[in-house]
Design goal:
Layout: E1 2-11, E2 16-26, E3 31-35, H1 42-49, E4 57-62, E5 65-66, H2 72-79, E6 82-86, H3 97-107, H4 112-125, H5 141-153, E7 159-163, H6 171-188, E8 191-196, H7 199-203, E9 208-213, E10 216-221, E11 228-229, H8 232-236
Parallel strand pairs: 3-8, 3-9, 6-7, 7-8
Antiparallel strand pairs: 1-2, 1-4, 4-5, 9-10, 10-11
Helix pairs in contact: 3-4, 3-5, 4-5, 5-6
Length: about 240
C-alpha cells in the first residue's frame, strides 16, 4: 500500500538532511504509529504520501505507483483517496459540524443525496451525532478533533494520515482519539499512519510503532513482538 525505499529528504536552502536512508513498508488495512521528537522527520513521511513534498533520493510508492510517476491530475485524484487529520483541526469556524464534514464532498461534486447519506454516518461513528448543528467554537478540543477525523474519512479514503492528532489534547482525551482511530481501522479497513510524539499513549495501542530520531529509523516494533529492529538496515533485513 505504502512503501519507502532508501528515502532521503534534503532541504538545500537550510542544508538540513531531514530524512536519511529510510526504508519502510505499510500494508493494506494496517495501522502504524510514527513516533519521535518534534522535527525528527515523521511529518515529512506523511507529506510524502500525499505528495506535498517529494524525496530528494530514493523512492516512495503509494497504491503501487512511484510518486514521481504521478501526473498533476493523478495526484489530485489520489488525494481523494487519502484523508488527512491535523493537530490544529483546521475546521471552518463559521460552519456547523455538518457543514465542515460535508465540505470535502462538495469539493468533489458529490450529490445532495450522497452528502445527506454519508455525513450523518461518519458523525455518528465519531460519537457526535448530537452536535451536527454546533459550531466548532462551542466544542471541546477533543470534539473538534473528532469532527476533523469525520471530515477526513467522509470520502471513505483508502489511506488516513494523522499528524499529531493528540498534540493539543489531555491524556484521557488523547487515548479516546487513538481508540477512535483503531475503531476506524477495524471497521472500515483503512490503512492508517499516525505521527505522534506521545509515546506513552501510543504504547497503549499495542500496534506497530516506528521510532524516528534525527531523520533515521531507530526501531520498528511490530505488534505482538518484543524485538525492535534497531536501525533502518535491520528493518530492511540487510
Amino acid at each position: 500500500m505504502i512503501d519507502f525505499k532508501r528515502v532521503h529528504l534534503i532541504y538545500h536552502k537550510d542544508k538540513v538532511h531531514a530524512l536519511k536512508d529510510v526504508s519502510l513498508s505499510f500494508s493494506k488495512g494496517e495501522i502504524s504509529f510514527l513516533v519521535g521528537p518534534t522535527g525528527c522527520g515523521k511529518s515529512s513521511l506523511l507529506k510524502m504520501v500525499y505528495m506535498d513534498i517529494m524525496p530528494s533520493r530514493g523512492s516512495v510508492r503509494v497504491l503501487g505507483k512511484d510518486t514521481y510517476d504521478y501526473s498533476e491530475r493523478q495526484i489530485a485524484h489520489l488525494r481523494r483517496k487519502v484523508g488527512v487529520v491535523f493537530q490544529d483541526f483546521r475546521l471552518l469556524p463559521t460552519k456547523t459540524v455538518y457543514e465542515n464534514v460535508a465540505y470535502p464532498l462538495h469539493v468533489i461534486g458529490a450529490s445532495d443525496y450522497e452528502i445527506e447519506r454519508r455525513v450523518p454516518q461518519v458523525v455518528k461513528l465519531v460519537g457526535l451525532e448530537d452536535k451536527l448543528d454546533s459550531l466548532p467554537g462551542s466544542l471541546a478540543k477533543g470534539q473538534e478533533q473528532r469532527v476533523s477525523i469525520a471530515r477526513a474519512i467522509v470520502n471513505d479514503p483508502l489511506i488516513l494520515l494523522a499528524d499529531e492528532p493528540t498534540g493539543n489534547l489531555d491524556p484521557d482525551t488523547s487515548m479516546e482519539i487513538i481508540k477512535l482511530l483503531l475503531e476506524i481501522q477495524t471497521t472500515r479497513g483503512t490503512t492508517i499512519l499516525v505521527a505522534s510524539h506521545d509515546m506513552e499513549t501510543v504504547k497503549r495501542s499495542r500496534k506497530r510503532i516506528v521510532r524516528i530520531e534525527n531523520g533515521i529509523v531507530v526501531s520498528d516494533q511490530q505488534p505482538g513482538f518484543a524485538h525492535c529492529a534497531e536501525s533502518t538496515e535491520d528493518v530492511r533485513g540487510e
